[in-house]
Design brief:
Blueprint lengths: L8 H11 L6 E4 L2 E9 L5 H7 L7 E10 L24 E9 L4 E3 L3 E5 L2 E9 L5 E10 L6 E8 L4
Antiparallel strand pairs: 1-2, 2-3, 3-7, 4-5, 4-8, 6-7, 8-9
């Protein structure tokens, strides 16, 4: 299995988010788009795991949430640097919380950690999983840590290589 180099972690996350768009891994609400993706933590390199204090295991999935503004060039985005190109994707700092649940009713609490890379902001939660497990997720996202909550619900079956 290919490993993800630390320098390209953000690029991988963006690639994973956008290549999985056929699976409806984004939700647009008002001026924000929330992207979400679940992948096995064994896909990241040991260097990335160490850098971001993540556990690598075939039995741990990473749930990634990222919020971007649909319009460009807002001063309330992550970057307040006026040199940021107006068409550059800029992550929006947000509150993110929620929980997962297996079909058997077992709750999986989600503790999201914020990871920043240049103009990107990711919220990552580690989740213990087993092969074939079907999980449903209920996530609440509050862009810019104020205002209305955006509910995100999705189901995904976990496959371990």
């Amino acid at each position: 299995m290919k490993k993800i180099h630390p320098k390209f972690f953000g690029i991988y996350i963006i690639f994973a988010l956008f290549t999985n768009s056929l699976l409806a891994n984004e939700q647009q609400v008002g001026e924000y788009t929330v992207h979400y993706n679940l992948f096995n933590s064994s896909m990241i390199t040991p260097e990335v795991a160490t850098q971001y204090k993540l556990k690598r295991s075939k039995n741990i999935a990473l749930l990634n949430i990222s919020v971007v503004r649909n319009s460009t060039g807002s001063e309330s985005d992550l970057s307040s640097d006026s040199s940021t190109a107006p068409d550059k994707v800029v992550g929006v700092i947000s509150n993110v919380f929620g929980q997962g649940q297996s079909l058997s009713g077992q709750h999986k609490g989600l503790a999201f950690r914020e990871i920043r890379e240049e103009t990107a902001v990711y919220y990552i939660a580690q989740i213990p999983v087993f092969h074939g497990e079907r999980l449903s997720f209920d996530i609440q996202v509050q862009p810019e840590k104020k205002g209305k909550l955006i509910p995100i619900s999705f189901k995904q079956q976990i496959f371990i290589e």
